[in-house]
Amino acid sequence: TVSDAEAITRVHYNAAHGLRPANFYTEDILNSWAPSPSAEHRINRFRSIIESDKEVVVVAELDNKLIIGFGAIIISDHEIRALYIDPMYEHQGVGSKILQHLEELALAQGVNILKLEA
Question: Is the N or the C terminus of the chain less surrounded, counting Cβ atoms within 10 Å?
Answer without folding.
Answer: C
